[in-house]
Each structure stands twice: as structure tokens, then as C-alpha cells.
Design goal:
The protein is mainly alpha-helical and 265 residues long. The chain contains 13 helices and no strands. Helix 6 packs antiparallel against helix 7 and helix 9 runs parallel beside helix 11.
Length: 265
């Protein structure tokens, strides 16, 4: 009987595809737990795919998306070093892991480091674009770059990154890039534009629930519409409570915004 322990590469591919689907559904804890269990299985050096590394990249990425990036930064650093000397498959995994690291650094408000990491990944992707498809990962890294630029107060640059890449982005990355555009407009004090852009946004999948409310609340607060802003940020916090870890950066940002709104009442 074939099991995940003895399966061929095609079976591993199906397993990781299923886990990636679960990630898109926001089932981060389940994905991380299963991926960590897979990473502990005996290694098979003759496999064409590197399931051990892929499982670890998936596990750490799930932790970052769940809001526990600070917990896995050291693990990501070690994994990135381990993936350094291997072939193209592992090179792509390494770049994905570095993208997770950029997101975790932004979540920790280490924005300058996050920018440096994102730019380095983009440079490396440009070097291998002739060998393998990189467009999807490139746009994902650009969302991390835009987030870091917003964190650094360089909102016009963040706007340029978001606007320039939205036409080629696909869901759900396009939704994240759109949120970065609204954030960048808020950061420039262009709250009317930010609010209009937020209201043009596509419906959020369940795992992203609350994000649009958060940037909408920021725009409403900037326009002096305090009651609407408070209602929006409370909706956002309620959605985050159902989906992500209490330490997630979204919770922090939402609570801080709520404090600014109610403090000015």
C-alpha cells in the first residue's frame, strides 16, 4: 500500500497542492501542523523533489501568515542557509522562504530590513527568469516591498509599486496589492482617494476578512468621520479575532487605530 512515506513525487505534489489550498482558506494552524509532520518523515535522497524542505517552507510560511512571524524568524534564517547550495527547485524554495522572512520582518516593524530582503529576492528572481516561471512569486514579493515602504513612510514609492503591478497581479495577490495601494494613499493624506479605492475593492476571501475594513477605517478617520471609522475598525478586529493569531500585526494595527479614533472623541 502506498502511503505518504513511500509515495512517488506525484503523490507529494498532490499533498502540497492540497496544503496550499488549505492555506488559501486560512487554515494556517492545520497546514503548519501537517507540514511539520511531513518534514519529520525519513528523507529519501533519490527523490527529484525536495519534500522535506518544501514542507518546512510551507510550515514557516503558514506561521507567518497566521501572525507568528517573530517565532519563526530564526528558523527561516536557518532554512535559507540550508537551501543555499542546492539546485533550481531548492533555489525557488529558498526565495519563497526569503519572501516569508520579508513579511515577518515587516510584521516586526523592521521595515528597512524587510525592504532590503524584498529587493534582494527581486534581483535574484530577475536572474533566473529565463530558466523558470517567476511572475507569481515576483508579484508576491512586490506586496512585501510595498508594505515595507509604507512602514518606512515612503508612501509615494509604495503607491508606484502597487499601481504599477496591479494590472498583472492575480487573486489573492492582487487583493493584497490593492490593500497596499489604499494604505499608501492614506499615508499621503489622500483619504478621499483611499476611501474611493477601498470601496472599489473586490470582495475579500474569508482568510483576508477585516483587511479592507481596516484601511477603510483609516481613511474615514482621516476624513474626520469618527463614528464610521470606529465601526469599521471594530468590524476588522472582530474578523481578525476569528481568523488569525492574537499577536498578528493586523491586531496591533487595528488596536492602535482604535485607540487613535476613540482617544480623539
Amino acid at each position: 500500500m502506498t502511503t505518504i512515506r513511500t509515495a512517488r513525487d506525484s503523490e507529494w505534489g498532490k499533498t502540497f497542492a492540497r496544503l496550499r489550498t488549505m492555506t488559501e482558506e486560512g487554515r494556517y494552524e492545520e497546514v503548519e501542523a501537517e507540514a511539520r509532520a511531513l518534514a519529520k518523515l525519513p528523507r529519501r535522497p533519490w527523490r527529484r523533489r525536495p519534500p522535506h524542505w518544501e514542507a518546512r517552507v510551507l510550515a514557516t510560511g503558514s506561521a507567518v501568515m497566521h501572525g507568528r512571524g517573530a517565532e519563526v524568524l530564526d528558523e527561516l534564517d536557518a532554512l535559507i542557509v540550508e537551501l543555499e547550495p542546492v539546485g533550481l527547485n531548492s533555489q525557488m524554495l529558498r526565495l519563497i522562504a526569503r519572501g516569508h522572512r520579508a513579511a515577518a520582518l515587516s510584521g516586526a516593524r523592521r521595515y528597512a530590513e524587510a525592504e532590503t530582503e524584498a529587493l534582494a529576492v527581486l534581483k535574484e528572481l530577475s536572474r533566473i527568469a529565463h530558466r523558470t516561471p517567476v511572475a507569481r512569486l515576483e508579484v508576491t514579493i512586490l506586496t512585501h516591498l510595498a508594505g515595507a515602504l509604507c512602514g518606512l513612510g515612503r508612501h509615494e514609492e509604495a503607491e508606484a509599486v502597487a499601481r504599477g503591478n496591479l494590472p498583472r497581479a492575480q487573486p489573492p495577490t492582487s487583493l493584497v496589492l490593492h490593500l497596499m495601494l489604499v494604505r499608501s494613499l492614506n499615508g499621503q493624506g489622500r483619504h478621499e482617494e483611499a476611501l474611493a479605492e477601498a470601496r472599489r475593492g473586490a470582495p475579500e476571501p474569508p482568510r483576508m476578512a477585516g483587511n479592507l475594513d481596516l484601511v477603510t477605517a483609516e481613511a474615514l478617520h482621516g476624513l474626520g468621520r469618527r463614528e464610521e471609522a470606529e465601526a469599521a475598525v471594530r468590524r476588522a478586529l472582530g474578523a481578525f479575532e476569528r481568523r488569525v493569531h492574537p499577536g498578528h500585526p493586523r491586531f496591533r494595527d487595528g488596536r492602535e487605530l482604535l485607540g487613535r479614533i476613540t482617544g480623539g472623541a
